[in-house]
């Protein structure tokens, strides 16, 4: 959350949700005082602009910037984002319940990772029951054709759950997810083909 004041907003509703501010298929949504307001436009926040610049420098483009093209062969990267909470592996599309063109492959990679951490796998619309524009998942996959997965770490029913789990939970989180992390690293040279194996 970029906590720059947005008019008369107060409390947790102040600012832009940076997890929803990327400029790929962006549409502003919701109440600007809500916790998940994604901003007036994609990349409206300096943090999002920085990520955009960084990823354009390090990721080759393996996909047309539309909503229907599959990724072209050749990607040698995988991007993983760690969030809290809910014990889920999420992937594109986040803005709709319609699967991404490479949705079955993203799900297969997620299911392979879930053999270690036992997380639920799918899109935000199928796993969480809601959608949102401007996500990092949609931006990285949609813009570059690189597999992007989000781990929502921490079971909501434990002391290590919720959006701000205790620091003492880090070792447990790492132990639970280390095999999945290692699999992603070992298959990054051909993630679309090796990731599900």
From TrEMBL:
UniProt keyword annotation of Iron present: no
Active site location: 152 (proton donor/acceptor)
One Gene Ontology term from the biological process aspect of the record: proteolysis
Entry cofactors: Zn(2+)
Alphabetical list of Pfam families matching this protein: Peptidase_M14
Keywords: Hydrolase, Metalloprotease, Protease, Zinc
Peptidase M14 domain span: 1-188
Entry GO terms, CC: extracellular space
Family matches, as Gene3D superfamilies: Zn peptidases
Name of this chain's protein: Telomerase Cajal body protein 1
Organism whose genome encodes this protein: Platysternon megacephalum (big-headed turtle)
């Amino acid at each position: 959350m970029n906590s720059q004041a947005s008019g008369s907003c107060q409390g947790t509703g102040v600012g832009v949700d940076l997890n929803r501010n990327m400029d790929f298929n962006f549409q502003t949504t919701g109440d600007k005082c809500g916790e998940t307001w994604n901003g007036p436009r994609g990349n409206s926040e300096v943090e999002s602009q920085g990520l955009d610049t960084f990823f354009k420098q390090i990721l080759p483009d393996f996909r047309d910037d539309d909503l229907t093209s599959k990724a072209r062969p050749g990607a040698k990267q995988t991007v993983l984002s760690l969030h809290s909470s809910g014990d889920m592996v999420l992937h594109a599309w986040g803005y709709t319940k319609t699967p991404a063109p490479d949705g079955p492959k993203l799900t297969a990679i997620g299911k392979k990772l879930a053999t270690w951490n036992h997380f639920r796998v799918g899109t935000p619309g199928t796993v969480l029951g809601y959608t949102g524009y401007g996500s990092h998942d949609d931006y990285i996959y949609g813009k570059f054709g690189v597999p992007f997965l989000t781990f929502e770490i921490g079971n909501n029913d434990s002391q290590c759950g919720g959006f701000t789990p205790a620091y003492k939970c880090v070792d447990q989180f790492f132990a639970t997810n280390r095999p999945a992390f290692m699999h992603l690293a070992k298959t990054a040279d051909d993630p679309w083909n090796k990731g599900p194996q």
